[in-house]
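Handoff note, outgoing to incoming analyst
You'll be picking up this chain. Sequence as last confirmed:
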Amino acid sequence: MRFARICLLLLLGVSLCGTLASQTKKKKLLAIGDVKGYQHDSVSQALATIERIGRESGVFDTYIRTDAQLITKQKIAAGNAKNLDFFDAVLFYTTGELEMDDQQKKDLLSFVHDDGKGFIGVHSAIDTFYQWPEYGEMIGGYFKEHPWGVFDAPVIVEDPNFPGWQGMPRQFTLKDEIYQVRTYSRDKIHVIARLDASKLDLSNPRVMPEHRADKDFPVAWAKMYGKGHVYYNTFGHREETWDRPDIQKMYLEAIKWAMGLVDAEITPRPLPK
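Most recent structure output, in case you need it:
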């Protein structure tokens, strides 16, 4: 009888350990630094920083690639190669028309839309795949100039409750290159932060005419794409930006949200008056 109790306790212990292990299993992030256009010097530091914060937090392991080979659900012949089925989210710090065939593009959209996985776009991720409209629909918009170059950008936080933005001042300045965004709609994205248009030079000839009217310059947003979580943030052009603890926290929490580890209210809403 005593032996049976010991065996039962051992079995329960093994079961509990297995349950705890499954609950603490680290997520997998595929971070792509493929560049087919403007060469951002900060890509290396950005991806190294993403890898470090994932490792130090114990939340996720990062697989860094400078090509798009692993963006597929098909079996890859190369030894030990992973495909999208292995990952929980994909991060792009990319530029231009990446070398992905039609099946790879279909697989990436399915990974997010149908499988409910995450996608994180960093800075020039919206300066990517102009010839693939479905990508623009997924990420939420496309790059259209950076009228003010690198400057002390005046930022207004619209959603201080979004993961990674708690504790940020409601208004602050950040020295970085901020993108102007086209082909986006507030009906489809949840803007987390935008530029303070009252502090911008709107006479700059590179400001889109339609934005002289609505004065809406989002810098970070979140959205659903089917079942999947999509996050974009324009911060990260400068290497120095990645040294900031607040930016590191911002991206860590965004990745956790994209992976479904934390919740957030992301109902689209109009530009606040």
